Amino acid sequence: MKVLHLSTFHQFGGAAIAANRINQALNRAGFSSAMLVADTSVVEPFVTSLAQTPWQKRWHTARFALDRLTFMPFERSRDVRFAFSPALIGTDISQHPLMQQADILHLHWTSFGFLSTRSLNKLFALQKPVVWTMHDMWAFTGGCHHSGTCEGYQHHCGNCPFLRTAAPDDLSHSGWLRKQTAYQNARLTPVGCSQWLANRARQSSLFGKLVVQSIPNPLDTRVFVPVPKAVARWELKLPDHKRFILFAATKVSAVGKGFSYFQKALGLLRQQLAQPDDLELLIFGAGDESLLQALPFNYHFLGSLNSVQQIVTAYSAADLFVIPSLEENLPNTIMESMACGTPVVGFEVGGIPEMVQHQQTGYLVNYRSVEDLANGIQWVLEQSETAFQQLSANARNHVVMHYDETVVARQYIRLYNDVVTQAGPPGG
């Protein structure tokens, strides 16, 4: 049995990292798994780039630009430019050799010019079983990646809050109709990375009649392991006598990552601490470092970390990891931090409550509460050495038990066997 994973990106963004980890985990488990991505500059076994030549790479970039241009006339503001994907631009990969060889197609995050709704329709027409791991809500909405408080996806979309001119027959409604048509003859099994996302898919009009599974993202817990704090701080040239709060994001300035809440909470925290100068910040990710200059604590900005060992070292050097995201599925960063024995403080949103057990592996914060975010950080910092060691051990044990790649690979292999042997006609 051969499975082919489809992802726009190879190693950029949480969804691509998760998809790549699933592919790696399956291969290490002895399963025949390959991955086809729109483009990549990284050579890796079992991963193939659709764009091979310089011209093909330029055409990939052009498709990405065209995809965004199709949405710009409709967007409510620049803040939502990457929050909605009409999927009008894509490429036909139905005749690709890897596609023809595959017994199962495994979709991941395929927007931004890789696969359009029409491209998906051509894949579904092959009548191969399709597993779709949803890294956000896009698969069952009219185009948004996270709907927030909007529940239009439970009906037929329309009157979309992401659009400049919302109407019953707006861009979100036409996107919903295109997906409804594409899914009609698909042999489709949706999978949520979190129970939260799987439940939302079950409530949707597009996937509500399907059997929606829930399988988490995997992590290689042999790689993500605790490094002694003194060693980690020495490697990063950090003072050993300080306490460190870690913040990380693919793009620090992204609105959904909640940096403004983090900044305000730190302001409160500084007033609450008896010795605030003993606390410093550790930050890694992409974006403008000037955003950090208003923070009320000294900070160490590591920039984008490309080495896994550097990332492990950064998690291990911190006393806690703060994730103030306003919308999340099942963040890779949380399981990475916990696997390194670093407790997590984050809002009670999306799949985060499935990962962080309140006051056992970290602190769950009341949604959008700056005050509780400050309280949660302070709670972790004030734990005794013995209590902190227990928090650390609990965090790692939770990841090993639920997210280790061998555990997740077994779940996917069972699912593949089920979808291949399922009897009955396809339907959506």
Automatic annotation (TrEMBL):
One of the entry's Gene Ontology molecular-function terms is: transferase activity
Signal sequence segment = none
Q: Which superkingdom? A: Bacteria
Answer whether the UniProt record assigns the keyword Transferase to this protein: yes
Which Pfam families does the record match to this protein? Glyco_trans_1_4
Swiss-Prot/TrEMBL keywords: Transferase
What name does this protein carry? Answer: Glycosyltransferase
